[in-house]
Design goal:
With about 100 residues, the protein is mainly beta. Helices cover about 0% and strands about 65% of the residues. It has strands at about 1-5, 15-20, 25-30, 35-45, 45-55, 65-75, 75-85, 90-95, 100-104. Strands 1-2-3-4-5-6-7-8-9 form a 9-stranded antiparallel β-sheet, with no helix packed on it.
């Protein structure tokens, strides 16, 4: 596997993770241009696969809060996805079956 890292034009790290045969593999992390976390999760054979977490973009002086978390299977949302308000409070849950997502 080959470690891959790229940067935003302002020099802040944009993404990092591993490539296997030219495809994303394993844990990948992504950042906003203001250095806040954007998302992180796992790839398998170039597809999002496994747990993913995503965050709202942080404004100067604010704490950063999670936007949502859930699982992917071969690039499609599966199972329970939990969403949060920008202030970190619970918002809603959806259930996904690779084709449809239903609010619950």
């Amino acid at each position: 596997m080959q470690f891959q890292k790229s940067y935003h034009p302002n020099g802040v790290k944009k993404e990092e993770g591993y490539l296997l045969n030219g495809k994303k593999e394993g844990l990948w992390r992504f950042w906003y241009e203001n250095e806040g976390k954007k998302q992180e999760g796992y790839y398998r054979e170039g597809y999002r696969n496994g747990l993913w977490q995503m965050w709202y973009q942080r404004q100067t002086g604010e704490n950063q809060h999670m936007c949502c978390e859930g699982n992917f299977e071969k690039g499609k949302r599966v199972g329970r996805w939990t969403f949060f308000h920008q202030d970190g409070r619970y918002f809603y849950i959806i259930e996904c079956d690779r084709v449809f997502c239903l609010c619950g």
